[in-house]
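During the no-cost extension, the postdoctoral fellow (Dr. R.K.) reprocessed legacy sequence entries with the updated structure-token encoder. One reprocessed record is reproduced below for audit purposes.
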Amino acid sequence: MQQKNTSNSDFLERTDKLSNEYGCSLRELAPKIGVSEATLFGARSGKIPISLKTWSKLEHAEESLGLNKAVYPVEPTQNPLQVVEPPGSYGCQSKGRYLEQRVSDLESKYVEILEMFSELRNGQKKILRASEKNGGTADEH
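Re-encoded structure tokens follow.
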């Protein structure tokens, strides 16, 4: 048997809590959160990796019961394309909010890059115009 990591321990704890809140067995919990029994028990045992889709379904079930909505860290990562491990704890926000923030951050960076290219293009045009006025040599003042 594989050693359980933090993700599996978190999944185990959260599915136990959901099972208690619903007042049902783990077998009955699987369809309530929208996963197969094999997925639920495999993820709980650490035998299969827990997909983002499964984390999302778990979060949705928690939200429908008004339970903790935490999955993604608030702090942005160094690399905007880096995938963040889903299970979270205190100081976290929902997956949807996290993704909205990441998209917003990326859009801002994109706009900054476009502005930089525009400034470079304008600078090149000024240099070319100055070069044409000076008979083919750009003035470096």
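Residues 104-141 form one domain. Residues 95-133 form the longest helix (39 residues). The remaining legacy entries will be reprocessed before the final report is submitted.
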